[in-house]
Design a protein that fits this description.
This is TetR family transcriptional regulator. By secondary structure, the protein is an all-alpha fold. The protein has one domain: Orthogonal Bundle (Tetracycline Repressor, domain 2), CATH 1.10.357. Helices cover 71% and strands 0% of the residues. The chain is elongated, with a radius of gyration of 19 Å.
Amino acid sequence: MPTDSSEVDPLELTPGAQRILEVASELFYRRGIHAVGVDTIAAESGVTKRTLYNRFGSKDNLLRIYLETRDRRWRELIADRLAKEDKEEGDPLRRVLTPFAVLPEWLTESDRGCSFVNAFAELPERDHPGNQVIRTEKKWLREFFHDRIVEAGIAEPTARTLSVQLLALHEGAIVSNAIAEEPGAARAVTEAASALVGAALPAR
């Protein structure tokens, strides 16, 4: 019997299931969600469709896990850099800009743009589990900026406005890098973000 979607933990996948996820992730990102069928994923993974369904339950569930895995890797990248900043007693500005600091590394594997934005274009239904993962990821990043901004001593309503501005700059860099093929996008938006936050910081 196929696995219940709610029972699949991406952190506890067998090596075979992990292989399926890796293949599906590459296909979803490179070709698009609707362009890739279960037959293709199974064939390129070297398994039968029955095995795929037994491991993941459905294509939608496999898609959800793909997005959750990307989200977890992104958050871990930020958390690791933030921990380094804390160890080095980083200043408030650098803490706020942590997602920008790791952006060049993230862009090396994101030449087709943001996987979440790409998937969002194909998943308009708000109740789709993949759509929910995407919205949660973007809201999380906005709140990350907001919380670090407040920690830096910037009060409301400036903190909320600034968090939205930083989110827009960050997302714009990914689009500019992939579509406009602008290799300096990450550096340019980091400079803009630094200027915005620096101007809003209370005088020391």
